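Section 5: illustrative case.
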């Protein structure tokens, strides 16, 4: 894996993790 691929993979993973965390916090804030 090249450095560029590693950077792209990390960026995608961070975006995915951030989206999941945001949805989870929003879901919990609804009191479910």
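Designed sequence:
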């Amino acid at each position: 894996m090249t450095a560029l691929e590693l950077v792209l993979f990390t960026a995608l993973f961070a975006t995915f993790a951030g989206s999941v965390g945001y949805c989870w916090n929003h879901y919990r804030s609804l009191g479910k």
